[in-house]
């Protein structure tokens, strides 16, 4: 069976470590190179649970990634780094799956406000395929450049899109409150993310200005047939991994709890990684370390609101696992390859 060689750039970040682990056990992928300044020249087996030839691979300085030789490069790098690397790799015929936000937004004019830089690869931006298979699988087939969705956008779009598209919930007046584990901030040392600061605490952050806001609105609008501004409030919670999103939507005529369940079942009933359940049964612990999303919706008849709840692992379905699932889809492979044995 032919395998595709893989390079992971940014391999020492939390998402990079997850990618390394998943790729190493994937039956159609072969780990060829790992790039990390932090762990340069160390064997991968000393940092990740690997065995065999993969364990002997030594991390290379990230500056060498521009010249990497592999069938596909997974970029688990900051947006500015991905923006600098991706065009050259793509031009050399390397398939690219970018886990950063560098290519998620359709409008290049949005990048200075939300990401703090001018977009310098507009032609490639227009070619990027959004890697959320459950909502747009057909567009991924044969794609050579995939932009991986953000973790918050994944959890929220999967919860909202079927409900708005069905007409059971209004496209206007949507408010989302989402909670994320500390690993969502990445592997960095700062006082705000130290144990003493986050333990036994719960806080909202970047209210109205989180970089995933335009991506959330863009994604839901695209797959739900249009949407108004979405109020998004992220929270940091003292757990290592996982996202729980609670979404409030205005109910439309015909919005009953059976109808809401039917809309979600119609969207995800055959999806291997999405499970529809009662919303008060959706829990982070059940999706942690898996590529699954659990989602449910209820009708609050007293207030006239639909409440949709979803949970994912921010490092797997929100990052590395979804990147591999999307690459599987580009090749026409079974999307569960390398992901079906991830245990929660």
Can you give a write-up of this model?
By secondary structure, the protein is an alpha/beta fold. It has 2 domains: 4-148 and 319-331, 3-Layer(aba) Sandwich (Rossmann fold); 152-312, Dihydrodipicolinate Reductase, domain 2 (2-Layer Sandwich), CATH 3.30.360.10. Helix content is 29%, strand content 20%. It contains 11 helices and 13 strands. The chain has helices spanning 14-24, 53-56, 79-91, 111-114, 122-127, 133-140, 151-165, 195-198, 213-224, 257-268, 320-331, and strands spanning 4-9, 29-35, 72-75, 95-98, 129-130, 145-147, 174-180, 203-204, 230-236, 243-250, 274-276, 293-300, 305-312. Strands 8-9-7-10-13-12-11 form a 7-stranded mixed β-sheet, covered by helices on one side. A 6-stranded parallel β-sheet has the order 2-1-3-4-6-5, with helices on both faces. Strand 12 (293-300) and strand 13 form a beta hairpin.
């Amino acid at each position: 069976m032919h395998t595709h060689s893989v390079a992971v750039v940014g391999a020492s970040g939390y998402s990079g470590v997850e990618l390394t682990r998943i790729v190493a056990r994937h039956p159609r992928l072969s780990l060829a190179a790992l790039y990390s300044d932090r762990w340069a020249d160390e064997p991968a087996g000393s940092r990740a649970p690997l065995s065999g030839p993969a364990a002997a691979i030594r991390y290379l300085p990230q500056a060498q990634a521009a010249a990497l030789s592999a069938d596909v490069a997974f970029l688990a790098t900051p947006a500015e780094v991905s923006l600098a690397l991706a065009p050259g790799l793509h031009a050399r015929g390397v398939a690219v799956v970018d886990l950063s936000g560098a290519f998620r937004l359709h409008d290049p004019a949005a990048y200075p406000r939300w990401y703090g830089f001018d977009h310098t690869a507009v032609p490639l931006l227009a070619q990027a395929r959004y890697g959320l298979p459950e909502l747009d699988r057909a567009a991924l087939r044969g794609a050579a450049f995939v932009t991986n969705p953000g973790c918050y956008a994944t959890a929220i779009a999967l919860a909202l899109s079927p409900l708005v598209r069905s007409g059971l919930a209004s496209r206007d007046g949507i408010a989302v409150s989402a909670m994320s584990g500390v690993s969502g901030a990445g592997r960095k040392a700062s006082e705000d993310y130290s144990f003493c600061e986050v333990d036994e605490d719960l806080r909202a952050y970047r209210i109205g200005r989180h970089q995933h806001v335009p991506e959330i609105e863009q994604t839901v609008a695209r797959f739900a047939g249009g949407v108004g501004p979405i109020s998004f409030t992220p929270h940091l919670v003292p757990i290592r991994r996982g996202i729980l999103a609670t979404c409030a939507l205005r109910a439309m005529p015909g919005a009953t709890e059976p109808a809401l369940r039917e809309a979600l079942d119609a969207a995800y009933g055959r999806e291997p990684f999405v499970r529809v359940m009662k919303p008060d049964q959706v829990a982070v612990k059940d999706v942690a370390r898996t590529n699954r999303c659990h989602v449910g919706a209820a009708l609050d008849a007293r207030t006239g609101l639909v409440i949709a709840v979803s949970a994912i692992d921010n490092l797997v379905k929100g990052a590395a696992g979804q990147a591999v699932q999307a690459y599987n889809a580009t090749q026409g492979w079974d999307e569960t390859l390398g992901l079906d044995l991830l245990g929660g």
